[in-house]
Amino acid sequence: MTPRILVTRRIPDSAVRLLESAGEVWVCDQDRAMTPAELHEAVHGADAVVTMLHDRVDGEMLDAAGSSLRVVANVAVGYDNVDVTALDRRGVLLTNTPGVLTDATADLTFGLLLMTTRRLAEGERLIRSGTPWAWNFSFMLGSGLQGKTLGIVGMGQIGRAVARRALAFGMDVVYTARNRVEAEVENELGADFLPMSELLERSDVVSLHCPLTDSTRHLIDGTALSRMKSSAVLVNTSRGAVVDERALARALREETIAGAGLDVFENEPEVDPELLELDNAVMVPHLGSATSETRTAMAVLAARNVVGVLDGSGPVSPVNG
Ligand code: DGY
């Protein structure tokens, strides 16, 4: 029987064509996330499903799919939207899209870092508001990056790409991670390993690149924020819930830290209303991987994963199994 492939959201044509080489493809054509009820109905009888980071893949969804389902191809490197244990129990493979979004996310991290330390969003708002301004020696001063310390939390591919960029900006790099990386990599990046508490105390910029798991949820809470320097900046391009957003808003309001650059939010797409009031919070709407090249590469990689599972050659980037 021809395999049935569900794609939960419009993806680039090149990826759809690839999927069509492996089965009958149904792409949800509405320009919004499917509701759980719509997803459960559409996935019934599918052999493969291509999911987005906002799709909840849990036991209920897998039961709705039924025993035909062989692979869930998540179009994201993060897979905190997926209950991997529920997939394992049913023998369903999960794949993600590592590698192809590394540079785009690292670039955006630096964009946010500069926006925050050099007050770019604030300056742009000032111009647009028509507020009179004039150059003077102390007008809208930010802080430079040269010689400052960047603390990277999570030294996977994206953390490493951020470290490389930091070197080009003349920054010192320290990092913390579940496992220390190989000495060769530390040397190449000039990165010193530190325990989390020390990294928070020493860094001028703390940048988050760890996945969201039970152990990283609210990793940056009130206590962690209170360890940071009052001149320091937090950048988050990982997942919103790695940070306790209420505690962050408090720290920014009370200026116990200097600023935050946020690409991700705890209850996306909702943003804590308090953050919206704060000039020292720079926010963009989950744009880490948002370049046309990267999004196409992500969709194509997800499609290659599906094809590999369905034709028996195996997935390119499996998470489990
Ligand atoms: C990911 O791949 O996890 C990104 O957040 C997608 O933008």
UniProtKB/TrEMBL annotation:
Pfam family, one: 2-Hacid_dh
InterPro entries xref list: D-isomer_2-hydroxyacid_DH, D-isomer_2_OHA_DH_cat_dom, D-isomer_DH_CS, D-isomer_DH_NAD-bd, NAD(P)-bd_dom_sf
CDD domains to which the protein is assigned, alphabetical: GDH (cd05301)
Residue ranges of every copy of the D-isomer specific 2-hydroxyacid dehydrogenase catalytic domain listed in the record: 5-320
D-isomer specific 2-hydroxyacid dehydrogenase NAD-binding domain sequence ranges: 110-288
Any GO MF annotation of the entry: hydroxypyruvate reductase [NAD(P)H] activity
SUPFAM superfamilies for the chain: Formate/glycerate dehydrogenase catalytic domain-like, NAD(P)-binding Rossmann-fold domains
PROSITE patterns associated with the record: D_2_HYDROXYACID_DH_2, D_2_HYDROXYACID_DH_3
Keyword terms, alphabetized: NAD, Oxidoreductase
Any one of the GO CC terms: cytosol
Record flagged with keyword DNA-binding: no
Family statement drawn from the similarity comment of this UniProt entry: Belongs to the D-isomer specific 2-hydroxyacid dehydrogenase family.
Name by which UniProt lists this protein: D-isomer specific 2-hydroxyacid dehydrogenase, catalytic domain
Taxonomic path: Bacteria, Bacillati, Actinomycetota, Actinomycetes, Actinopolysporales
